[in-house]
Design a protein that fits this description.
With about 550 residues, the chain is mostly beta strands. The chain is built from eight helices and 30 strands.
């Protein structure tokens, strides 16, 4: 069954219910489908004024009419967010519990890879978290266009940590060890322990250095933690690592559940060096966070769902909000400071558990957190989550205040250079398509070099803020490969028009794809039909299937 038809069937079979308020332990095995790619088609966006109509090009005279006719009255896939909105950061799949690191001029965001669960009748049901065993990772240097690096295979028989069943709530960091940068990915195996993976790049391939959990119930001061999960990690200025974790209820006290923990990491970042320390956290639910500013340490967390009126009056927060504590020592003691983020449900609707990460990039402060914008746009209100990013200002005294959550997200930091090779699996909106492994290593690991995949007629990628300069390019070269049977025509249109009605480049690819061997990349170069100059948002719109796109580059 085609993916668009499959998704349409799922929508018809929806059984709407209230989203989950928090994580629960896995119960029985359930039938699961892969996370659906947003592919339902609908009428195009409102017509915008055509751009770059004046042209000295003669390419249109030689352009095959048949190519343009392929795109006439074409219905494009639903992108599930506004053209100028940066949130959610991914529309091709779900991602929750985000944790961000900065490395080599980019921000990498690691997310719990929510997957759709269905019941015996095939109806979508509430997110039970029990089938999650991969971690999705994306990166950006402009906070608008995100490169998809795939889904790291973490737990289970195909994962790096075969001893683990689940991979929830990732935390990541990097550290130079013996002259080499090493990347560490910590994850929760359900609510019963925390594992660690190691790689030489931010996106893997990751390996399991221990063969067991780094944090487990057999450790001192860990056996009595209700939920041994949700790690956060900090590498201090002197290279020392610290890990923070824990959560869950305590029937004896909602205000002081006593479930927060932290510990110093060894120099190799894969074992604990010293005691596990208890953190006294008021109304702790889950979601440890940590950041440093002006030589002080800020532990952040999600408040539980038992905050009463007295608790609100005392601390200034309600249930399910992100709160901050402050200390002069990475292991505490911490003192309560403020509430910084409401529950996303209060702003976007579809409330549930809250999870975040505070980080810096180019001397500015950001918060990444999950909401349910993507699932709401798909009309799947069962607790499946997507990731947002917003900017905020840090006061000199470490005060943050209430961070504003918006669909608009962060303004684009830099423009895209079209005259260098650009990864095709990168953009602001992936509509109806997804990313897949480009090579055998990435396929085995689940992450690495990716290509645009699952392409069908009407699918597109929007790349925002492409700077062509004052002089128009003359052609574009696209790297692609045949991935399956070629049925019918295959073509590409590149457009600046938000209604998708006008293109400045058309390319017919059927003959070359039909004759190409499966799996081998080759390049095709297309002349531009019209001029395109200045900074533009461009859409790569596709007709056909059975092919994947690796990269693109414009030429003057």
């Amino acid at each position: 069954m085609k993916k668009k038809a499959l998704f349409a069937v799922c929508l018809v079979l929806l059984c709407l219910s209230t989203a989950c308020a928090g994580k629960t332990e896995p119960t029985e095995e359930t039938k699961v489908t892969e996370t659906p790619v947003p592919t339902a088609t609908e009428a195009a966006a409102p017509t915008a004024e055509p751009q770059n109509e004046n042209s000295d090009f003669t390419g249109e005279e030689n352009m095959s009419v048949d190519v343009k006719e392929l795109f006439t009255n074409l219905k494009v896939a639903n992108g599930y967010k506004g053209f100028q909105d940066s949130n959610p950061i991914m529309t091709q799949t779900y991602g929750a519990d985000p944790f961000a690191i900065t490395y080599d001029g980019r921000v990498y965001i690691y997310m719990t890879h929510d997957v759709i669960e269905t019941d015996a009748k095939g109806e979508i049901k509430d997110n039970g978290y029990s089938k999650i065993n991969t971690i999705r990772v994306v990166s950006t240097d402009d906070f608008v266009n995100y490169t998809d690096h795939g889904a790291i295979k973490v737990a289970g028989s195909e994962g790096a940590a075969k001893w683990a069943r689940n991979s929830w709530a990732p935390a990541a960091c990097w550290k130079n060890i013996d002259g080499q940068d090493k990347f560490f990915l910590y994850f929760a195996d359900s609510g019963n322990g925390i594992g660690v993976l190691v790689a030489d790049t931010p996106y893997g391939p990751f390996t399991d250095p221990l063969g067991h959990a780094i944090i487990h119930r057999g450790m001192e001061n860990c056996g009595n933690v209700a939920w041994l999960f949700d790690p956060a990690v900090l590498v201090d200025d002197d290279g020392t690592g610290y890990i923070y974790f824990g959560g869950g209820p305590n029937p004896e006290s909602a205000e002081w559940p006593g479930m927060g923990r932290c510990a110093k990491l060894s120099d190799d970042m894969i074992s604990i060096d010293g005691p596990v320390v208890k953190i006294d956290v008021p109304f702790l639910f889950e979601d440890s966070g940590i950041h440093k500013f002006n030589n002080k340490y800020y532990y952040s967390y999600c408040s539980n769902f038992s905050v009463d009126a007295a608790g609100t009056e005392k601390y200034g927060f309600v249930s399910g909000e992100i709160c901050v504590m402050e200390s002069e020592n990475p292991l505490g003691p911490f003192v309560y400071k403020e509430r910084i983020l409401k529950n996303p449900g209060a702003v976007f609707g579809d409330g549930g558990n809250n999870h975040h990460c505070v980080f810096t990039f180019n001397d500015k402060w950001y918060i990444t957190y999950h909401a349910q914008l993507l699932s709401a746009a798909q009309n799947i209100r069962h607790g499946y989550r997507s990731t947002n990013v917003n900017e905020f200002e840090m006061g000199e005294d470490g005060t943050i205040g209430s961070i504003k959550m918006t669909k608009a997200g962060v303004a684009q930091l830099k423009n895209v250079n079209p005259y260098v090779e650009n990864v095709a699996a990168s953009g602001a909106i992936f509509a109806g398509l997804n990313a897949a492994a480009a090579d055998a290593e990435s396929k085995k690991a689940g992450s690495g070099k990716m290509v645009l995949s699952e392409i069908e007629t009407g699918d597109y990628v929007l790349v925002r803020g492409v700077d062509f300069g004052e002089a128009s390019p003359k052609k574009v070269t696209v790297s692609l490969r045949r991935s399956g049977n070629i049925e019918g025509e295959c073509a590409l249109k590149i457009s600046c028009d938000k209604a998708f009605s006008e293109g400045f480049c058309y390319g017919l690819m059927t003959k070359e794809l039909t004759e190409a061997p499966v799996g081998s990349f080759f390049e095709m170069t297309f002349d531009l039909d019209k001029e395109v100059t200045g900074v533009q948002d461009i859409n790569f719109v596709f007709v056909g299937s059975g092919f994947e796109v690796n990269s693109w580059k414009f030429e003057k």
